[in-house]
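Could you join me in thinking about how sequence relates to backbone shape in a protein? Label the sequence line and the structure token line clearly, so we can match residues to local backbone shapes. Once you have written the record down, we can walk along the chain together.
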Amino acid sequence: MDGLEQWPLVDRSSLDGIKQWLTTQPHLPQIEEHVIALFLHANYGNQEASQRTIENYYTLRTSHRECFTDRNVFNDAMQTALRIMMFTTLPGETKEGYKMVYTRLLTSDASEFNHPQILKLITMCLDLWVKMEGNANGHIMLTDMQGMHMGHMTKMNMAAVKKHMFYVQEALPIRLKQLHMINVVPFMSRLMFLVRPFMRKDVQEMINLHVNVDTLQTMIPIESLPNEYGGKAGSFQQLEESFKEKLYANSDWFRAMESQYLVDEAKRLPKPKRYMFGFFG
């Protein structure tokens, strides 16, 4: 069971089943056992659902090149995004064993707000979160809307949002449990009107809106929140710096992932054609 120690609930026969399935999918990359285990864990051991997630994950990383290439955390575009948006993991976990991430704007100035670039940064951060904490019982995302205004909304790129939402819901190997929006903005209903078409029904039902952090404390351990919100996780600045260091430390990993584990569309087998009476040819 080399490399599978962190996946005690992953069943060996399911893992072998996916390895066997991969041999029939020449377009997909050959992935290691511990990566297969990650997908099985995210899908609660369901082999068919895991295969679908694997297919979505590698296909999207190959086709959505603007988000999955040039992932250099030190380049100007990324440094600008890091000045605008903060992403961090929160320490500890909920009573159910769920791990948490938290995002907020670092500036309310929307002049440099490049929405596809911000989503690219968030995708990188989510990828790193999965690498670090993919084997949690569940995953929670907290979005702090403090500082967000209509200037940001006018710069929203809905094509990028659609791809991002598909990646998070259908490809990323996490167990998404809750979405919390803190310090919700007055135009929240307009925002939801724009993004709801890209959200699965069950994901829409995970959303919790909070005017401030008081209502959040019934669902998230108070000590896991930033100091500014009465928690003990560290200040905004400490949390921001801490995760940025993790991004920098993994810069080689991000670059390597750009060219590894891609789908070869030329080798993708055609879907079976349907003949009369619904038989497959």
